[in-house]
């Protein structure tokens, strides 16, 4: 029987990437000195399942590599090795390397062999070096294997499975078969643990084995066989012939084996591991859930993990929907039979429809809930980023994450990651000063970057706050004038000056580094955020710090829209950007420079954008402002009036991407399907503004 | 014919593809039948402002917005009419691993024909005057020339496709 293993690859990779993330987060949490065993355990477990999985699927290089990491972690957990920053760094680098290997394997490739070798050597050296320091400790241990551990002529294996071995779907027989493939196997089976028949639990494993294996295989290869059960058994592997023989084919094993205290640990640890499974298990699974589908950082995963509670809720609601449907069906039949409709029937019908409406709405809300994930998916990458970058830049930076549990739509999570990384990098590079400068300015040596996420109205707000040098308005302005982005006579408000950094080609970094300062990015950041239907604002105080506030809609799947007509065409304006809609009196309209029209609303002059002109609508029934309505909207911090023929209803619309089959069209964020099945485009305010500017330029040129 | 010769014959047969043929003005075109998802009657679409005129707009295809491209306008036929033989062919293309759907407007759908790959002749160059980039070859069917329409290439046109953008 052959099973196509490839079908499981996707799950394996997905889980492995999750595992890597757990490892990374865990490593970041580890404090040098006194390691938290629970954290190490979770890192260890993640490494262990990657190792097991990659072994099973034949990614031997990955399995070998992970094995080294695991060994190192194992020593830390057993207090045989101190938790030092250097160790953490090695492990973090290894996580990166492992990620590369996994990504390469996912694409059916091989990772850069030289790099992998380098990392592997690094790990092996670390393991070997410490093994020597600790020879005094290791001799205390009862296992004599430690010093002679490379491939000998054979191995004595004592294998005592735990009672519950079968429950984890492991079969000792298949392990033995696997061992037999490594060499000649003799074994002694112990049946003495089998109880009397009355006490016998048919599903428990009572048998144990003493085996001797004549083989050239290394201890690691044997350990590999037991990889899936090693926390479910007592396992002792001792060399059959105590003779050290250096096998030139396996230099790495030689390097690492002096320090493999595995048998000892397995025995002690069995209890622990089981305990872990019971107590730590639930917490860990929750963690897994949260990490699940972290598409934000790894591009290939598109699945999503959902709490069972949410699914149960959905099923309940679908059940109710079915009941309502059958009730309405029954009513229909009844009316058909009677060939008449009584007022009671109408009453019933109305009730039924109301119930249907309620059900549909609840269902919709709950389906939306399924897509919601905590923002920690996005935030979790920052501790590492900040750590790496700050050491690279020689700055001391504390990262504070607030509101990680704030829930956001999955699409937002996926798309906000890159812009956030960019902004945080900017804060690190340009915002926070070096330690000396900070101390000289009377600040603490350590700079702080705070990422804060919270809900506000129907929005999610993400703040990136640093206590760095702030932005110098004069420098910004000077630079903008140098680059010809603004003219010297322009009078700009503070806000407008800060806005300058979002202009294409604007960078304030005196030195262009590989971290940031290439003058690309901020405009793309803003555009990406706008594409998500959000906005970004900057507030900065020179010498005190900068706060960047990103405002995003909670979901990208649905928005509240106002249907408007322009000529005979229907369009949707997002209600969130509408301030008010008014009928215009001719005397409120002024012409500016013979072409632009402005409208005086209370104390403000508001430019009027005639949508039919912007959209090139050939309908001739739109001439005078007084015949239509003006919808006052906010776009990029400005107020503008959109001139439309009429307002139709307000409704929640499901956003359909134009990009999936077509392309992005300036001025529109997407399309939606109206109740009659026709398509209506959804306006994108900043886009409309820039379309209008183009139109004005064109008419000026003409 | 004995068995051996049948086998020999088979080795000589090159791949046969089926094509759906359609008319645009006076010209006959063929499109690989595997690229065709469905055929629909003409229906009103939502115009998308500020796009080339041959892109009629977007259509609701069971909940997704699909661009509607009038091939007749694309082929520079002036003022094509919309009547009850005007049809929309919903086509599928794969671009960089993504499946994309568009619908093209043609005057009428004619037939399904078979064409062996060795029957397909190369498109002659017409210089700049005639746009042949979407024509992958020519086939002669009963003295009538049929131009093979290359959907994948067509859908990569910047008017209807843009490369995904990434943050620097």
Summarize the structure.
The complex is a heterodimer of chains A (702) and B (168). Chain A is α+β, with helices and mostly antiparallel strands and 702 residues long. In chain A, 45% of the residues lie in helices and 21% in strands.
Q: If you had to describe this structure to a student in words, what would you say it looks like?
A:
The complex is a heterodimer of chains A (702) and B (168). With 702 residues, chain A is α+β, with helices and mostly antiparallel strands. Chain A folds into five domains: 6-141 and 273-287, Four Helix Bundle (Hemerythrin (Met), subunit A), CATH 1.20.120.160; 151-245, 2-Layer Sandwich (Alpha-Beta Plaits); 308-373; 376-553, Histidine kinase-like ATPase, C-terminal domain (Heat Shock Protein 90), CATH 3.30.565.10; 558-701, SH3 type barrels (Roll), CATH 2.30.30. Chain A has a six-stranded mixed β-sheet. In chain A, strands 6-8-9-11-10 form a five-stranded mixed β-sheet. In chain A, strands 20-12-13-22-21 form a five-stranded mixed β-sheet. Chain B has one domain (17-155): CheA-289, Domain 4 (OB fold (Dihydrolipoamide Acetyltransferase, E2P)), CATH 2.40.50.180. Chain B has three helices and ten strands. In chain B, the strands form two sheets. In chain B, strands 8-1-2-10-9 form a five-stranded mixed β-sheet, with no helix packed on it. A five-stranded mixed β-sheet of chain B has the order 3-6-7-5-4. The model of chain B has no long low-confidence stretch (mean pLDDT 81). Chain A binds chain B through residues 418-419, 422, 518, 520-521, 524-525, 528, 569-570, 614-617, 656-668, 670-671, 673, 677-681, 691, and chain B through 44-51, 57-60, 63-67, 100-102, 159-162, 165-168.
The CATH architecture of the largest domain in chain A: 2-Layer Sandwich
State the CATH topology of chain B.
Answer: OB fold (Dihydrolipoamide Acetyltransferase, E2P)
Could you tell me the mean pLDDT of chain A? 76
The CATH class of the largest domain in chain A is identified as Alpha Beta
What is Rg of chain A?
33 Å
